Amino acid sequence: MKVAVLAGGNSPERDVSYSSGCMISNALAEKGHEVALIDVYLGIGTPPQGLQSLFKKYPNYQKQSYKIPTTPPDLEKLAAQRVSDTGMFFGENILELCRLADVVFLALHGSAGENGQLQATFDLLNIHYTGTGFAGCVLAMDKHLAKEVMVANDLPTAPWVYLDRYDQLNWDQIDSLGYPCVIKPPRGGSSIGVSIPQNKEEFLRGIQAAIASAEDRQPDLLVEKYLAGREFCIGILEGISLPAIEIIPNEGWFDYEKKYQSGLTREVCPAEIPEELSIRLQDTALKIHRALKLGYYSRIDFKVDGDGNIYCLEANTLPGMTPTSLFPQEAAAVGIGYADLCDKIVRNTERKEE
Ligand SMILES: Nc1ncnc2c1ncn2[C@@H]1O[C@H](COP(=O)(O)OP(=O)(O)O)[C@@H](O)[C@H]1O
Ligand SMILES: [Mg+2]
């Protein structure tokens, strides 16, 4: 198949995305596909032999790699790197190239790739893409909306307070959660803008950090009760829960650096937990996946307290996809290697509306 792998973008998670994109492209080329890896925001110039010539197959395909820097990228400098200023999110030739592909593999992270806007646009353009459709993306990307759906379906999630405006705080509500608590931009990812304040001073600083990192520049915030305990993720693939993976940071919590720099976090898959807990996590994850209308694959994140109570933190429609990312590790635990996983995702792309 002819596959365009879309990565990068203009989100703080662009480096993570590009790194995933390289690995996915290599894997798909290894599986015999014709592959073009492109940065959705930067765009690409037209080669002399036309856009078709950007799809490469082995032996002409050249392996790609990209190392994620320790800190999120400087987005101010990005505009200058665009092939041309298209006046829109999509860079030069991106939509044309996507229309030439049989399938677009979304290796994006962050707002435009995960919040459903791109999926809805592609539906209207009759471009076929991997993963969840736009409605599921809208529900899962907004952590507050997703939590409302979970509660409506009796599915467990961390207690929270939603604040419409960071500059009009209701301290009674916030204090009811106690300290430490967890501040999150409602539509963020990769722990960017997340903080765990221990007191009111740290809380006020945390709010500024969350607001500054909000890609969509909205003034709302989510504050969650801090949950001590173990952290697990469950991947869903083809309507089935994969084995739980446990995340054990060497110290502190699972922040940006610990997510993407090797050696700072230990991951155990299958998690060393009683079968009863593992089944409960898998069962809950699948129910959350369905309630949020997620597609062929997803990853649901949980905390589990000392009494074995489970709480969902969030659902991810485009989980990290480097070979060492959590979701591919879970697939590997049931014998699905990385290249096979990428191949399955491409081959199971639903044809959306014609
Ligand atoms: N309520 C909570 N209690 C304790 N730790 C939390 C809580 N919420 C988030 N965290 C920590 O912050 C990390 C990022 O939070 P998460 O909700 O998964 O957002 P993101 O979309 O940025 O991954 C989690 O992996 C976890 O380590
Ligand atoms: Mg998470």
Task: Provide a quick synopsis of the model.
This protein has helices at 14-30, 94-100, 111-114, 117-125, 134-141, 143-152, 171-177, 200-213, 256-260, 275-291, 326-333, 338-347; strands at 2-7, 34-39, 103-106, 160-163, 181-184, 221-225, 230-237, 240-241, 245-249, 265-268, 297-304, 310-316. The protein is of the alpha+beta class. The strands form 3 sheets. Strands 7, 8, 9, 10, 11 and 12 form a 6-stranded antiparallel beta sheet that branches. It has a 3-stranded parallel beta sheet with strand order 2-1-3, sandwiched between helices.
Question: Describe it for me?
Answer:
This protein has 354 residues and is of the alpha+beta class. The protein has three domains: 2-130, Rossmann fold (3-Layer(aba) Sandwich); 149-155 and 227-337, D-amino Acid Aminotransferase, Chain A, domain 1 (2-Layer Sandwich); 159-225, ATP-grasp fold, A domain (Dna Ligase, domain 1). Helices cover 33% and strands 18% of the residues. The chain is built from twelve helices and twelve strands. It has helices at residues 14-30, 94-100, 111-114, 117-125, 134-141, 143-152, 171-177, 200-213, 256-260, 275-291, 326-333, 338-347; strands at 2-7, 34-39, 103-106, 160-163, 181-184, 221-225, 230-237, 240-241, 245-249, 265-268, 297-304, 310-316. The strands form three sheets. Strands 7, 8, 9, 10, 11 and 12 form a six-stranded antiparallel beta sheet that branches. The chain has a three-stranded parallel beta sheet with strand order 2-1-3, with helices on both faces. Strand 7 (230-237) and strand 8 (240-241) form a beta hairpin. Helix 1 (14-30) packs across helix 12 (338-347) and helix 4 packs antiparallel against helix 5. The two termini are 19 Å apart. 48% of the residues are buried. The model has no long low-confidence stretch (mean pLDDT 94). Residues 158, 182, 184, 188-191, 194, 224-227, 231, 253-254, 301, 303, 313-314 line the site of adenosine-5'-diphosphate (ADP).
